[in-house]
């Protein structure tokens, strides 16, 4: 993990630059969570301290991509699709590796009105028999209860999927409103560990809506162009922490 740089000077929003400014899917979510943190990051170069990577989640993600790629090459359905009666196969397209690379690529779309390049790295894309693309996201957890999408903190997962659906639509694809979360739940009821962790794998459908995305792009663009730092969101832990520190610092 690289050393945290509290003051970045590259990749900042410049309203006078003819080059588009890149706004990732995660930065859209940051704006929705706290406009002040978003402004500090994209305009002033002061990002939130990064969290530590979830190595086990990354391992699950990497192995799933390898597994679904085997069926992608054969143009056949994965057993999980068959188990849930889903008429689809992994989408075979030479751009998949680029679309998955959130740091150096991703699915991109230039929003002409704001000169913002919207980008997001997708986990997977499937295609159904009607030719519609299906956005798929891999998730891993470990809980005693059945996995659902009902928790408040999972709203970010849903917005994530909706941004990907919007990006694919803007790139001219026919996109299914139904996306899927391949959710792996680690089993904790085993008697011993024995050097392995077993998972239940569930396919959770989600009906996305993308009508909020473009309106949000206009709002975050107005935020970027403002000369004044916006107010913090009332429930932003980072801003509340900074506020408390100022009492004593």
Oligomer, anyone? single chain
Uncertain ranges: none
> Termini separation (Å)?
28 Å
Helix count, DSSP H or I runs of 4 or more residues = 8
The proportion of strand residues reads 15-25%
Average pLDDT, rounded to a whole number, is 93
CATH architecture: Alpha-Beta Complex
Share of helical residues:
25-40%
CATH class term: Alpha Beta
Task: Please summarize the sheet with the most strands.
Answer: 5 strands, mixed
Number of strands: 8
Radius of gyration: 20 Å
Structural class: alpha/beta
Order of helices and strands: EHHHHEHEEEEHEEHH
Order of strands, widest sheet: 2-5-6-7-8
Report the CATH topology name: Lambda Exonuclease, Chain A
Net shape: globular
List the domain count as a whole number.
Answer: 1
Structure description:
The chain has 249 residues and is an alpha/beta fold. It has a single domain (21-246), classed as Lambda Exonuclease, Chain A (Alpha-Beta Complex), CATH 3.90.320. It is 35% helix and 20% strand. The chain has helices at residues 25-33, 35-42, 55-74, 79-83, 96-100, 155-170, 211-225, 237-246; strands spanning 21-24, 88-90, 107-111, 116-120, 124-128, 133-141, 178-186, 199-207. Strands 2-5-6-7-8 form a five-stranded mixed sheet. The chain has a three-stranded mixed sheet with strand order 1-4-3. Strand 5 (124-128) and strand 6 form a beta hairpin. Helix 1 crosses helix 2 (35-42). The longest helix has 20 residues, at 55-74. It is globular. The model has no long low-confidence stretch (mean pLDDT 93).
